[in-house]
Amino acid sequence: MTTRIRDVMSPGTAAVEPMTTVARAARLMREQDIGDVLVTYDCDLFGMLTDRDIVIRALAEGLDPAATSVGSVCTRPPVVTLAPDDSTDHAIELMRRYAVRRLPVVERGGCPVGIVSLGDLATTEDPRSALADVSRAAPNR
């Protein structure tokens, strides 16, 4: 049986506008215990900002997180996306091809509705794997 993305994705992901500061996005990630936010303007996906983007593209470059916009350091289009009715097999194929750990899920017309992570897929596709165990574990505090 094929599993659909809508059944495994994290719905209602956090989103910020491109002019949001990196510091604000980082606080949002901490508050929601997540490692990424979608960068959107209205309903359009502008990009994706991960905790790694903050470290590599902002902090390591010496940029001030309080003065740097997420739009200037996020991963910009073409961001690879999925539709809610896509299969988990398709998600795995895209993650392999593009070497990414997370994929935004967008409805027809481009409006983001969720995100699917490598951990989500591991938990669904191989629930006894080490990655699935790690993904289910309580977060570090």
UniProtKB/TrEMBL annotation:
The UniProt record lists the keyword NADP: no
Gene3D superfamilies: CBS-domain
PROSITE patterns: CBS
SMART domains: CBS (SM00116)
Alphabetized SUPFAM superfamilies for the sequence: CBS-domain pair
Domain of life: Bacteria
Lineage summary: Bacteria, Bacillati, Actinomycetota, Actinomycetes, Kitasatosporales
CDD domains in alphabetical order: CBS_pair_HRP1_like
UniProt keyword Nucleotidyltransferase, yes or no: no
Name of this protein: CBS domain-containing protein
Keyword list, A-Z: CBS domain, Repeat
Residues covered by the CBS domain: 9-65, 74-134
